[in-house]
Amino acid sequence: MGNAGILIEIENNTIKETSLGVMTAAAGQEIYALVLGSDAADYKDKLAEYGASKIVSITAKDDFSSSPDLQAEAIAATIKEYNFETLLGTASSTGKDLFARIGAIIDEPLVSDCVEVNIAEKQVKKSHFSGKTLATLKVNGDVLLCTIRPNSIEPVAAPAAGEVIEFSSDAADPKLIKITETKKGGKGKLDLTEAPIVITGGRAIKAAENYKMLEECAEKLGAAVGASRAAVDAGFAPHSMQVGQTGKTVSPKLYIACGVSGAVQHFAGMKTSKVIVAINEDKDAPIFSKCDYGIVGDIFDVVPVLTEKL
Fold first, then answer.
1. Which of 124, 153, 169 is the last residue of a domain?
2. How many distinct structural domains can be found in the chain?
3. How far apart are alpha carbons 72 and 64 in whole angstroms?
4. 57, 43, 4, 194 alpha-carbon torsion, rounded to 10°
5. What does the pLDDT average to over 164-173?
6. Same domain, yes or no: 271 and 144
7. How do residues 44-93 score in pLDDT, each as one tens digit?
8. Residue 19: which domain range?
9. Which residues fall within 8 angstroms of residue 209, CB to CB, at 6 or more apart?
10. Is there a single domain that holds both residue 18 and residue 82?
11. Residue 165 burial by Cβ neighbours in a 10 Å radius (0-12, 13-18, 19+)
């Protein structure tokens, strides 16, 4: 059993559920939950519940809150300090940024956006060719460095000791980049790529204002709202909402496609959803051959009823 570091992401003083799924991916290893900052003790109970033997509070001699370079240097130092054979994180914007930097610092290969990981064999699975196939990759390196697609692995409780330890890195800030401001769109809205439920509107939504119907349903479900490329190209939604090959890849527990035809480019961005529900008035729409449940009907009739029942 080797030592595995798991980068824990925290938002609004809450551990992201996607980080708990990454911890489950490391089951069978000695799990070190890595928390950037000095408040790791605040998350002890939850991290211990999901398998953390050790919870490492990572700090540096300089403030690293605005320096991803210094954060990466500190995490790289943690790998060496605790002899990690594996470092896993979420394939989020933060995870992708930091892991690329860490890979460069420690000179190890990085595999990003994986849907499955076998630590013992140093093998991972990830989608290739717009989701048409899954590739199994063998990683040759001293450290298995990997980010995992959000929601691809269901969190499973596995109580462990959860001992809190502190590690302070001596690394100096290279000052290559400094974050001066972070702007987040849609206050209070879930991140599309990390949401456990996604409800998406296609060309049949007809107008931007009709997304309010989907937002009302999403509020009842605790879901994020997405859009197909056809809806984005028609000006009904911004590109930040687009799901598909040229948009965002999502892997929720439940995906509800409203008026989405189901073109292969769209399917590439949501095919790893656990359950797919399609609502479309065209009974021959391709989406019906790819969904678990289908409703042939007008979304303007079906969605309000669904919202009311919820």
1. 169
2. 2
3. 9
4. -120
5. 93
6. no
7. 999 999 999 999 999 998 888 899 999 999 999 999 999 999 999 999 99
8. 3-169
9. none
10. yes
11. exposed
Q: Let me know whether 10 and 157 are in one domain.
A: yes
Residue 245 lies in a domain: yes
Of residues 238 and 128, more confidence is placed in 238
User: Based on the domain organization, do 83 and 28 belong to the same domain?
Assistant: yes
* pLDDT tens profile 116-136: 999 999 999 998 877 778 899
The CATH number of the domain holding residue 302 is 3.40.50.1220
In angstroms, the Cα distances linking 209 to 215, 258, 300 are 10, 15, 13
**294 belongs to a structural domain:** yes
Whether 34 contacts 57, CB under 8 Å: no
Helix orientation angle between 299-309 and 211-221, rounded to the nearest 10 degrees? 30
SS3 labels along the chain:
CCEEEEECCEECCEECHHHHHHHHHCCCCEEEEEEECCCHHHHHHHHHHCCCCEEEEEEECCCCCCCHHHHHHHHHHHHHHCCEEEEEEECCHHHHHHHHHHHHHHCCCEEEEECEEECCCCEEEEEECCCCEEEEEECCCCCEEEEECCCCCCCCCCCCCCEEEEEEECCCCCCCCCCCCCCCCCCCCCCCCCCCEEEEECHHHCCHHHHHHHHHHHHHHCCEEEECHHHHHCCCCCHHHEECCCCECCCCCEEEEECCCCCHHHHCCCCCCCEEEEEECCCCCHHHHCCCEEEECCHHHHHHHHHHHC
Q: What pLDDT is stored for residue 12 in this prediction? A: 85
Answer whether 0.85 is exceeded by the pTM. Answer: yes
